[in-house]
Amino acid sequence: MIRSVYYDQIDILKSIMELCGINRFCADVTYGNGKFYGDIEKPIFKGDISPQVEGVTECSSSSLPVEDCQFKSLVFDPPFLTYVKQAREHNSIMAKRFGGYWRYDELEKHYRETLIEANRVLDKKGIMVFKCQDIIHNHKMHCTHMNVIEWSKGMFRLKDLFILPAKRRMPMPQQEGAKKRVQKHARIFHSYFMVLEKVG
Question: Per CATH, which fold does 9-78+109-132+142-168+190-198 belong to?
Answer without folding.
Answer: Rossmann fold (3.40.50)
